[in-house]
Design brief:
The complex is a heterotrimer. By secondary structure, chain A is an alpha/beta fold. Chain A contains 8 helices and 18 strands. Helix content of chain A is about 25%, strand content about 30%. In chain A, helix 3 crosses helix 4 and helix 5 runs parallel beside helix 8. Chain C is α+β, with helices and mostly antiparallel strands. In chain C, about 50% of the residues lie in helices and about 15% in strands. Chain C has 11 helices and 11 strands. The radius of gyration of chain C is 21 Å and the shape is globular. Chain C starts with 16 loop residues before the first helix and ends in a 9-residue tail after the last helix. The chains are: A alpha/beta, B alpha/beta, C alpha+beta. At the A-B interface, helix 3, helix 4, strand 7, strand 9 and strand 10 of A face helix 3, helix 4, strand 9, strand 11 and strand 14 of B.
Chain lengths: ~300, ~250, ~400
């Protein structure tokens, strides 16, 4: 059985998630082909352990992203029975279009999978886990950072296919991301500071970290009330915002009931506080008893390493 | 010109989810709403309508209770309402895609708006799949659509910022978080909405045969209990906590 | 947890689809506009103009009035609007009650066609704000002996007197002032800008702080003759208005009680003491159960009296009972909720003491608790006990 993996590029290089998808293909025990749309990441893909072939699909249509055009081109180059990609926005779109072209089923955002295609995926924003079984030809998109990456001692053959599809879109203008601060109520990751930060200027440490992981910066009521420079819009808590991020990092926050009311339904909570008895440790999944002065520089370094990985 | 907006009814995102037997207990859901990303699509359609682009056809595919979201759409300004009535849960997006594209082909809409993914399945297959079946342009991750003469310009979100995309019609746009929240109805809109009739269609009306899929539903369960909180002494533990955030919690 | 309201006996199943949509529209507005901003509005003693605009745009002002650009909704819908507004704050609901039931209603029922066409459409949109001038410094429960008087002078009426405790007064474009013309109570429309009319704000309130409360000062206030309300003479005029407002309040109080109940329940579930959430202790459960009991009874009263209003088959005493009971239990629930919140209950982190302080006013205005008791006492016995000859 041939398994085709649609690779994605990140800044012109192969997105490292591709190596994780290869591991998934190995679970399914098929011959792995990696398809690189637009010719990105071809050499790197060939080095992933367990990859038999790399197919680079090239053509004018790859100049800008056009879901239908790219899917047509990729579809013509894919010969696998099972198609895999990551469940990024790109992966979901391309795979959905290809699945419809091929009239095969598609399952998105898979977090677990067995050799006989028993599939697990989250639904209802993670409030439930769904188990499905699938047989035959299909498209599967895989959640990033759940499966371990395959190694990189591979040496696959590389083939290039040229394909032109009709493009239905044109890019009039590209606008770089504005340096806008993410709002706490919308962020998937939040790092908040409390009165324990000592001085509003120290929130700069939190901002630095927030930029590394794409987080919003929040604050406890105590910080907002004490320091004019910390605006009410940052406040998380009973009279501030109620947030449900996947990760909430509370720094120098004691964890008074009013603050907990605003963040206790976060998926994961990390607390950094020098007081081992601080109530925040009662709700933290990972509590670090340490002053923020000691912990934050290390946190910054570790997160930088992780993100570059 | 008509603007089609595809809406899905889902458990309100604030609802508590409970389980009965081996599946989510949908009968225990106390509040049903329009899927949030679909709301952004609807707001965009309303804005385009107010700028003279055309009238709005709101379409949903779902069981009888989902007609409510069509009434809600009418209350904010949707002009016609279409309900493709299918009672059973469908685990294969292909059926939904076929039904919706069949309805859309009959309506001859040049512009189709929908959310990028539904808040219940969290999949995101329906929109692009429909574009594929209809063989029309697909632009995803849109936050806003503007009129530029005869063309439509969509703001597409990407990892590095936004792109202004000019799309050839007919085109399907899937919405990420939009620039505007769905407007609130007013009393007048609500009272007028009850006068709007809903066109109900069945799969046979659309000449669509629902297939038995190769996707077999097994179960839906509560997510596993998180392990009890772990407490570490000293800043040296930061490195291992970050590791755990990646490996155990999978949040970074 | 997100607010869902308490509906133990399933009143929701009795509502029409439109009534539910209207309720949800107001609930959503309160959630987004009132809840995040009310504490600051109270601290500053301000009723933000945006709220007036939003209420006008939503089309909820003068809810049960038909024609003249008014919403023409059922009384049940009006009740639901009041319930949701007061879940946010009694002061916000007071604005709507005064605008709709006390200022728009008398023009609608007792005004001339010209008056109705001139004022009502703009009031429904919130473009003109109205207020109701009945109560005086020395005449509260006894409005019949009011001393504000009107005298005919050529093409004008000249009014003299003072009104007190007037919601919206200082921000109002017009006031429906009740005054004695040749000893008989009549309604007069006084406009902001009429000579001899001023509406200073009453400051220093501990209650309804986000509501504007004013005095109306009439010193040789000269108004054109066409400003008199032709359709009513005597106390029937103001009392008809009050009955409508009281009806809205009977629902509003339920909203306030629900807000306090919801907060108390959430707090009790998360507050840990002696290693357990306090919701696990019997005394706390007893309180929560009592709250549920009273809210449920109050809902049934309000719902039923709304149906009677819609059927046109009601007497004022039935509204008195609902207003009196529902506000009374709402205040008790607010106090009990404060108790459950412990010391935290005194902070404006929680809405409790704001509701509690507000309800003191709500218990007093639109007929005090004791007066409604006497209204019912008179109904039972046929003997009025408001006054006696010493």
């Amino acid at each position: 059985m041939e398994i085709s993996i649609i690779a994605e590029n990140i800044g012109g290089s192969l997105n490292p998630v591709t190596a994780q998808i290869v591991s998934v293909a190995k679970i399914l025990d098929g011959e792995v082909t990696v398809v690189c749309p637009g010719g990105f990441g071809v050499e790197e893909a060939a080095k992933i352990s367990g990859v038999s072939k790399v197919v680079s699909v090239e053509g004018d249509c790859f100049a800008n992203f056009d879901g239908m055009a790219w899917s047509q081109a990729i579809n013509s180059a894919v010969t696998g029975e099972i198609l895999l990609s990551s469940s990024s926005n790109f992966g979901r779109e391309i795979m959905a279009i290809i699945a419809a072209m091929r009239d095969i089923p598609i399952i998105q955002d898979i977090t677990d999978l067995s050799a006989d295609m028993a599939i697990t995926r989250p639904i209802l924003s993670g409030k439930a886990i769904e188990k499905l079984e699938i047989g035959g030809s299909c498209c599967l998109t895989i959640r990033a950072n759940v499966f371990a990456a395959a190694g990189n001692d591979g040496d696959a053959d590389i083939k290039t296919i040229n394909h032109t599809s009709n493009v239905g879109i044109s890019v009039k203008e590209a606008i770089a991301k504005a340096d806008e601060k993410l709002d706490v109520s919308e962020a998937e990751i939040i790092i908040s500071g409390g009165r324990g930060m000592g001085d509003p200027d120290n929130f700069s440490y939190l901002y630095e970290i927030s930029e590394i992981i794409g987080a919003a910066v929040g604050a406890s009521r105590a910080a907002v009330d004490t320091w004019e420079q910390i605006p009410h819009s940052m406040q998380v808590g009973q009279t501030g915002k109620t947030v449900t991020p996947k990760l909430y990092i509370a720094v120098g926050i004691s964890g008074a009931i009013q603050h907990l009311a605003g963040m206790r339904t976060s998926k994961y909570i990390v607390a950094i506080n020098k007081d081992p008895e601080a109530p925040i440790f009662g709700v933290a999944d990972y509590g670090i008893v340490s002053s923020w002065e000691d912990a934050l520089p290390l946190l910054k370094t570790e997160l930088e390493k992780l993100v570059l990985d | 010109m008509s603007i089609a907006v595809l809406l899905k009814q889902v458990p309100d995102t604030t609802s508590k989810i409970s389980f009965s037997g081996s599946a989510v207990d949908l009968s225990a859901v106390t509040k049903w709403s329009i899927s949030p990303y679909d709301e952004y699509a609807l707001e965009s359609a309303l804005k385009l309508k107010s700028e003279g682009l055309g009238d709005i056809i709101a379409i949903t595919c779902g069981p009888s209770r989902s007609s409510k979201i069509l009434t809600d759409a009418a209350a904010v300004g949707a002009d016609s309402l279409v309900h493709i009535l299918v009672e059973d849960l469908i685990h294969d997006s292909r059926n939904i895609q076929k039904l919706l594209s069949s309805a859309l082909n009959r309506l001859n809409c040049q512009i189709i708006l929908c959310g990028k993914q539904a808040a219940d399945t969290n999949s995101g297959s329906t929109g692009p799949g429909i574009a594929s079946l209809m063989e029309i342009t697909c632009v995803s991750m849109v936050s806003e659509i503007k009129i530029d003469g005869d063309d439509l310009i969509a703001m597409r979100n990407g990892p590095n910022g936004q792109e202004e995309i000019q799309a050839s019609k007919p085109c399907l746009f899937t919405f990420d978080k939009g620039t505007e929240e769905l407007r609130r109805p007013n009393v007048r809109g609500i009272m007028m909405a009850k006068k709007k009739s809903i066109e109900t269609l069945t799969p046979s009306d659309l000449s669509v045969e629902l297939l038995n899929s190769s996707v077999k539903f097994d179960s839906q369960i509560s997510p596993p209990e998180k392990p009890p909180g772990q407490k570490f002494q000293g800043a040296d533990s930061v490195a291992s906590v970050v590791q755990k955030l990646r490996e155990e919690a999978n949040v970074i | 947890m997100a607010y869902t309201g308490l509906d133990f006996y399933g009143i929701e199943d009795l509502l029409t689809e439109e009534e539910l949509m209207i309720r949800d529209m107001v609930r959503d507005w309160v959630e987004k506009e009132i809840i995040p901003n009310i504490e600051e509005a109270c601290r500053n003693g301000v009723f933000p103009d945006k709220w007036r605009e939003d209420l006008g745009n939503m089309g909820v002002l003068g809810a049960p009035l038909k024609g003249y650009g008014c919403p023409g909704l059922s009384y049940t819908a009006y009740g639901l609007i009041c319930q949701e507004l007061e879940r946010g704050d009694s002061g916000v609901r007071s604005f709507a009650s005064v605008q709709g039931s006390l200022a728009m209603y008398p023009i609608w029922d007792f005004g001339s066609e010209e008056q109705k066409n001139h004022y009502l459409p703009k009031m429904a949109k919130g473009e003109l704000i109205g207020c109701f001038g009945l109560t005086e410094p020395d005449y509260g429960s006894n409005p019949g002996d009011m001393i504000t008087r009107a005298k005919e002078e050529g093409d004008y009426y000249v009014l003299n007197g003072a009104k007190m405790w007037i919601t919206n007064g200082t921000i109002a474009d017009l006031a429906v002032v009740w005054a004695k013309l040749e000893g008989e109570i009549r309604g007069f429309i006084v406009e902001n800008g009429d000579p001899g009319f001023s509406a200073p704000e009453m400051k220093g309130k501990h209650s309804l702080k986000a509501s504007i409360t004013s005095e109306l000062v009439l010193q040789d206030c000269k108004i054109p003759k066409d400003r008199i309300l032709p359709g009513v003479k005597g106390l029937r005029g103001p009392f008809s208005c009050l009955n409508n407002a009281r009806f809205g309040i009977s629902w509003g109080a339920v909203g306030s009680a629900q807000a306090c109940f919801h907060s108390a329940k959430e707090y009790a579930m998360s507050r840990i003491q002696f290693d357990n959430p306090i919701a696990s202790y019997q005394l706390v459960q007893n309180k929560l159960a009592w709250m549920l009991r009273e809210i449920t009874k109050a809902q049934l009263l309000a719902y039923h009296v709304g149906k009677k209003k819609d059927d046109g088959n009601w007497i004022p005493e039935q509204i008195s009972l609902a207003k009196m009971n529902n506000v009374d239990i709402a205040l008790e629930i607010a106090r009990m909720a404060r108790d459950i919140h412990g010391a935290n209950g005194i902070l404006d982190e929680y809405p409790i003491m704001r509701h509690m302080a507000n309800l003191e006013s709500v218990k007093t205005y639109e007929g005090t608790h004791d007066i409604h008791n006497l209204i019912i006492g008179r109904y039972i016995t046929g003997i009025q006990a408001f006054t006696r000859t010493l």
